[in-house]
């Protein structure tokens, strides 16, 4: 009786090509070919020199055209050509089919056949057919045992037999990428495999945090499966200490996929929606996005967080404390009144740019308004969006929500974009329209799997793929399955240091837009300072007073290790951790006040030490370059000469590079930007003293 499987297995077709399959076949074909050529040559009375010429030509061509062949292989191939040429010349001269000639030919053919492995190209071996899956006709040309096993899993789950063409282990281990050809009968598409990804992970018994990601290969009949076999989602992805300029026109790095490749987002083109329950790592992700946008020399960051401006506080801290003159966040709205003014002005700016941007687009031959430091993008980041994004929200918050939808609809091209975040993804927290307008969707742990389905419009997503805090799914294309990734971790101390270093160099709103903003925009910093200082007063009163701060270290000892500095790999379910933290923090003296885990998780930032103006000016002088000659830097800082520069920077333990480098056609010694940035960090973190003479420098 024929089984269903047998019906689906493609019948092997006849192969009419003359390509030899084995070494013996190749030797036999060559011997027969030479015999035939010499017979025809004798009939046509060809000169014996033709045989010699063909042999020499073939040997020479071997050295020129052979790829991935070892030296021994090249000599082997050349020897075959010379042997064949010599024998053919002999046969042309003496006439074919003498007994000695045929004997020599047979011996030569045997020797060539035995030596064939020497001449094989380096990956030929891998292309040899390996064993077929038991009971099937499939031939796994590559992929070996793993490929066979996965072809069998795929068959078990989808009832289709694929041909695995390669299995490539990931460079850093922890999984492999498998490429497979789908059956030629057209009964299945890559979508079948996409829909079966979580079942495949189950059948393969992959560990928690591991899974299968399916993508289209080089053509419609090829599928690529990224299979993770070691849970790397618990690893900490640390952020390189780099504050060099970026651009909103280029992809920005957010973290790492399971296969170790970077996750990047192109925010010039797409709005973003970030969803995650409390404790999912959403705040860290928003902080990371803020940092990346602050590094963009062509982007202004506007924050809306109507729940007390929490998203902006650490970033504004050095400015509120008077350590820097300009806030890193260009505009922060901690209440609905400020937020509505912000979104109205943003929309007005977009409308004006629509009218005036035509020429710029034509000049730049671009459909999108060309964004640059002189015409910056405005990115409005909205945290805890439920209060504004939920359909039916009334009052000022509701108006803010409507305006944000309008911006999403109409302003992206004109360089006004939105990153919104919320705790839940349901039809009552984020409207379907808003969701659709956000081309980039990111979701961390949420209360229900149905929220993932609502957000991504994708049926089979498993929360087991994002097992720990800081893990998210990302989707930039509704047709593609969301991919799990681990966000890079940004410690709060790095945020304050970055705010100090980046604030001064932030771009300014273009004049036309600033005019539209009028007095409301011009006076935003006064209102921000007053609003955030008022929030400080509220918080101090409600949450933590001085005695409690002194009490806190004693209570901290009872916090579960996972919430301290323990390794990320050991994190348990975030909800559970938060519950345990709450228990550990239940105060004995004042039961009505409960210190939440957030307090523990987000320690107060270290005190900021002002950066010497000399250093900030020097860092700015590099622009987008990484190195600068000493003479140029000294001139930029209006210093008498490079020796004075060396004295002042040397006092901050910043020294010129030990070798000369080329800039502007000249080879000179000079400084590296990252050394100056490291000194700035050391100063803000209190590791480096600043002598008075360095502070005394004025531009
Ligand atoms: N990508 C990450 N890698 C490692 N640790 C992280 C990561 N993201 C967050 N954490 C840690 O997890 C804890 C919770 O993170 P975070 O505050 O970002 O969560 P949240 O979802 O915003 O929660 P809440 O809304 O309560 O603030 C923090 O202590 C933070 O140190």
UniProtKB/TrEMBL annotation:
Keywords, in A-Z order: ATP-binding, Nucleotide-binding
SUPFAM superfamilies registered for this protein in UniProt: P-loop containing nucleoside triphosphate hydrolases
Domain FtsK: from-to ranges: 260-453
Protein's UniProt keywords contain Nucleotide-binding: yes
Residues the record lists as binding ATP: 276-283
Membrane-crossing residue ranges in chain numbering: none
Designated name of the protein: FtsK domain-containing protein
The species this protein was found in: Actinocorallia aurantiaca
Classification lineage: Bacteria, Bacillati, Actinomycetota, Actinomycetes, Streptosporangiales
């Amino acid at each position: 009786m024929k089984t269903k499987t047998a019906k689906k297995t493609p019948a092997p077709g006849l192969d009419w090509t003359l390509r030899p399959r084995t070494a013996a076949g190749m030797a036999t074909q060559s011997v027969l070919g030479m015999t035939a050529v010499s017979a025809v040559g004798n009939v046509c009375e060809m000169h014996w020199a033709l045989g010699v010429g063909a042999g020499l030509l073939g040997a020479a061509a071997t050295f020129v055209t052979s790829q991935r062949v070892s030296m021994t292989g090249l000599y082997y191939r050349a020897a075959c050509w010379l042997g064949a040429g010599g024998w053919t010349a002999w046969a042309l001269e003496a006439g074919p089919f003498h007994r000695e000639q045929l004997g020599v030919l047979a011996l030569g053919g045997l020797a060539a056949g035995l030596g064939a492995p020497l001449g094989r190209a380096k990956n030929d071996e891998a292309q040899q057919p390996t064993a077929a899956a038991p009971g099937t006709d499939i031939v796994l040309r590559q992929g070996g045992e793993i490929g066979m096993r996965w072809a069998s899993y795929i068959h078990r789950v989808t009832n289709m037999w694929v041909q695995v063409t390669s299995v490539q282990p990931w460079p850093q281990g922890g999984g492999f990428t498998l490429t497979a050809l789908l059956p030629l009968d057209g009964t299945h598409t890559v979508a079948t495999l996409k829909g079966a990804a979580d079942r495949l992970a189950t059948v393969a018994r992959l560990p928690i945090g591991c899974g299968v990601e399916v993508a289209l290969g080089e053509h419609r009949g090829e599928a690529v499966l990224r299979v993770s076999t070691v849970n790397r989602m618990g690893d900490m992805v640390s952020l390189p200490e780099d504050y060099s300029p970026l651009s909103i026109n280029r992809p920005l790095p957010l973290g790492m996929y399971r296969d170790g490749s970077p996750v990047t987002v192109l925010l010039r083109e797409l709005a973003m929606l970030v969803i995650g329950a409390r404790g999912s790592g959403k705040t860290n992700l928003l902080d990371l996005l803020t940092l990346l946008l602050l590094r963009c020399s062509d982007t202004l960051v506007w924050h809306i967080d109507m729940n007390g401006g929490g998203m902006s506080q650490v970033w504004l801290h050095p400015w509120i404390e008077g350590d820097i003159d300009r806030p890193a966040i260009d505009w922060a709205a901690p209440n609905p009144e400020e937020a509505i003014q912000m979104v109205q002005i943003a929309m007005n700016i977009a409308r004006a740019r629509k009218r005036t941007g035509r020429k710029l687009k034509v000049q730049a031959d671009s459909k999108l308004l060309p964004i640059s430091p002189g015409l910056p993008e405005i990115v409005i980041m909205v945290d805890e969006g439920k209060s504004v994004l939920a359909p039916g929200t009334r009052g000022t918050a509701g108006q803010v929500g409507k305006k944000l939808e309008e911006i999403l609809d109409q302003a992206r091209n004109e360089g006004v974009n939105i990153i919104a975040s919320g705790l839940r993804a349901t039809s009552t927290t984020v409207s379907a329209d808003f969701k659709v307008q956000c081309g980039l969707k990111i979701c961390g742990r949420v209360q229900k799997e149905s929220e993932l389905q609502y957000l991504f419009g994708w049926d089979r997503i498993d929360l087991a793929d994002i097992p720990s805090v800081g893990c998210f799914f990302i989707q930039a294309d509704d047709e593609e399955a969301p991919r799990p990734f681990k966000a890079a971790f940004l410690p709060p101390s790095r945020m304050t240091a970055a705010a100090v270093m980046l604030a001064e160099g932030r771009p300014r709103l273009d004049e036309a837009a600033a005019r539209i903003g009028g007095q409301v925009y011009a006076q935003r910093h006064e209102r921000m300072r007053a609003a955030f200082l008022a929030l400080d007063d509220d918080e101090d009163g409600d949450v933590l007073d001085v005695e409690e701060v002194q009490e806190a270290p004693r209570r901290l000892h009872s916090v579960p290790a996972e919430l301290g500095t323990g390794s990320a790999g050991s994190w348990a379910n975030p909800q559970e951790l938060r519950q345990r933290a709450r228990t550990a923090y239940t105060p004995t003296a004042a039961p009505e006040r409960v210190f939440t885990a957030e307090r523990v998780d987000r320690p107060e930032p270290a005190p900021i030490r002002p950066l010497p103006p000399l250093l900030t000016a020097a860092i700015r002088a590099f622009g987008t370059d990484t190195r600068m000659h000493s003479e140029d830097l000294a001139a930029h800082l209006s210093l008498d000469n490079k020796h004075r520069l060396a004295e002042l920077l040397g006092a901050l333990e910043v020294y010129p590079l030990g070798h000369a480098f080329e800039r502007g056609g000249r080879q000179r010694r000079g400084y590296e930007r990252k050394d100056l940035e490291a000194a700035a960090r050391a100063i803000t973190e209190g590791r480096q003293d600043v002598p008075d003479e360095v502070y005394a420098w004025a531009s």
